[in-house]
Amino acid sequence: MQWQCIILTTNRTTNQMTQKTYFIGIMSGTSLDGIDLALVEFSADYKMNVITTDILPMPEFLQKKLLALHKGDTHLSALGELNQALARTYAHAVQQFLRKYPNYPIMAIGCHGQTVWHAPEDALPFTMQLGDMQYLAVATGLPVVGDFRSKDIALGGQGAPLVPAFHQGIFFDENYHTAVLNLGGISNVSLLSASQPVVGFDTGPANALLDSWVAQHLGVSFDKNGEWAAQGKVHQALLAHCLRDPYFQRPAPKSTGREYFNLFWLQRQLEQIPESISPVDVQATLNALTVQCNVQALNQWRANLPTLPARLIICGGGTHNRHLWQGFVENLPQWQVQKSDDFGIHSDFVEAAAFAWLAKQRWHNLPSNLPSVTGAKRATSLGVIFTP
Hints:
This protein is of the alpha/beta class. Helices cover 38% and strands 22% of the residues. A hairpin with a 6-residue loop joins strand 10 and strand 11.
């Protein structure tokens, strides 16, 4: 069943609101730039209205502590403290949000938590998201749906990506081959076509590597509009070596994260290049890597499909990087390249809205994963409900 998405510009009356259900979605991704919130209205006639959105910048002390986890310099007490600090930050964000928008009867909160390690293919597969969901429920007085990935992994799946089912409902059009690309810390894609089941997977690095490299060399948190990358020159040998990483050759289902694509990974690639490369040229190459790993995946997918127009719908923080955006336009001349904003949902808040939808699915015990995407043995309703 296809959902329709509309951004509301007028307030609903109390009588209208009682006919609908309202969920809050919370997402903090691998880029660690902020906590996104979306208040979403769901109707019985399969319409979905994003009422309003907000973002709370990730506190700097949390950013540093979360990044330190991947350097191996942590211990169990620090992990526990991070779990609680994140829960309190989420609770603060929700409390602020509800003070701004007090007139909606919220059914539940869908909170993804902060992924700190994702290892679905280890001998003992697991995924770890921090943020105490029970504390969040008690602090806000609202039921919370969390721990969305574990059940899919228990069923033999990757536990990621989880948003393709949502993308299918919002963006599918039988007249197009549609790819929905989220450019967060890691890039992930949903591939939607009437001629095959939905496909979705993590394609490779995006903002996580770009932000880490610019922070190390310029001391800023991100490369605004890709301006620093635009000053450099793509080092073709480094780009080619990076693209030979086995991850890019693996078939879907597959997923990855900051535990794999990080500065340690980049350093290993640089060590294989005999000459020294300037930092700005490395940034330009990382920008090109984000484009090319996705362009290759998209072209490979489209090559095996019937002739139809193809469109790429981009969302996530990477949509603000004009240099990155231009790379997709130039490398996909036969595609319509658009933002999710063109379809009524702000590119910064697609994932937050998706976790409101995932919470709704769990609340009504409806399936929310796609085995064709994650590789799970069966479809199921994902998430655990925590009561206040």
